[in-house]
């Protein structure tokens, strides 16, 4: 057995109101454990999962206790016992453990253990028992098997068999009594009645011999009635001889029978009288008749045969009386034996019936108590009370049902513990998600404010671009007008030098127009600077929006894409503004030179006609420059239109971003509501678990 070291003498108290739950596979490896078990053991969840459950075994636990546990579990029954476990730091704690096998579809898949807080009396008894077991002075107590441990079928079969045995015994005793009575009657018949009948027949034959002698005397010649006999006298003599043989046979049979001493004495007297009756009477008379000495025969009849026959009757009566008395005694003894047999049958049958009734009453009473206990246990479970402790499992069906109920209660405890852990985990996750949703909502609100600012700036930028476009269009129109005016002036110079005065006026008008163009170009420079500032502000806002989108994480990814597009548009705006600024600078340079040329032209016109040709050349240059100004103004107008289009796209993107942020805010609110609903569900689970008493 694994010996976990080191150990201390410090006992860790069992957590009040909690129980320790763990599950193992068929090899005893831990596959799950609740937080209370992990906290009390001192190990981490990672250190326990996948390890053998003996990682918490204390060296003080005797191996026989675990042998008894495994033997019980492998038989499919739950095991309950006191266990001393070791903490990671060597401390110990006592538990009242209930271990049940876990099956699915009839196949074992592991074991489940629920440990409750033991009483101090249980701890003291367990310490004493385990100490004695370690010293070899005691063994693991085992439940004694009794009649109640037999299955209901076995007990009912035993009751029926006992009842059948009782009936069989009663029948056997009755039949034996009847057989004994029959033997007694047969004995009375054989030993008493048969000898009496045989003796009566002997007396009858002896009387018949006397009668045959008397009838033979009727054949005396001097008898006046002699002629009435149509048969010879020898017929009577032969009859006495036949009777003698029969009498001898009967006497031998009587003497061969089991007679009592008194009966044999009386039989001897009867035999002696019969001898004298035959020898002195019948035999002598028969010889006298054979010699035709009827007188002697008659004398023998009167003096011997009749008196001895009287003695023989008295002797036979004495023998008959003795046989009758003996038969009466035998019958009385047989009757007494029959009464005793009947009494014994009644006692034995009554005793066995009482035993059957007692066993049946005990079985039914025990079944009633067990069913009532199961009904009470089921009632407590139905009320949510899972704190009842099942002490053991008997071998009968109700015991198996109690074991199944214990396993069911244990599994319900484990499921409730898992539900409680799940609800606690849900509540923790809901708290985290609620905090995240609050942060997302706050960030979305800030993003919405910033997007609104960007949208407003974009709208202002769009208006400025439109103003720039209008100004550029005006400058282009002015350049076109200047070009037409210069052409007209040149034509006037060519047609007539006389129109010099008008040319001076026209040049002055052109100079004013160029001054206006210079002012317009200057305003274009101001507008381009405004566009530059707006582009820089847009770039800064896009950067801020990208930062906020990065903070928002996955929910701000779409907004980051829009912010990046805004930043690119701002960069394009800055690039276009730089181009416009360069071109405006060129226009300003050209207009400045044009103004100088116009001033020179005016001076030349005023100086004289000699310089007219030079003025015409200057006008040609002005035409070229005007064309360039018109061209540049067209480019500026086109760039302004592109900028306006881009500003419109930016504004639309800002609106989409604002809508997205608004949806994010709504989604965050919905997520917060879902978190609230989930929190309520978790609280409902905890309340449901709280209805059970474990």
UniProtKB/TrEMBL annotation:
The keyword Cell membrane applies. SMART domains: MA, PAC, PAS. Keywords: Cell inner membrane, Cell membrane, Chemotaxis, Membrane, Methylation, Transducer, Transmembrane, Transmembrane helix. The lineage of its organism: Bacteria, Pseudomonadati, Pseudomonadota, Betaproteobacteria, Rhodocyclales. Belongs to the methyl-accepting chemotaxis (MCP) protein family. It comes from Pseudothauera lacus. The chain crosses the membrane at residues 154-175, 346-365. It is a multi-pass membrane protein. CDD domains: MCP_signal, PAS. This is Methyl-accepting chemotaxis sensory transducer with Pas/Pac sensor. NCBIfam families: sensory_box (TIGR00229).
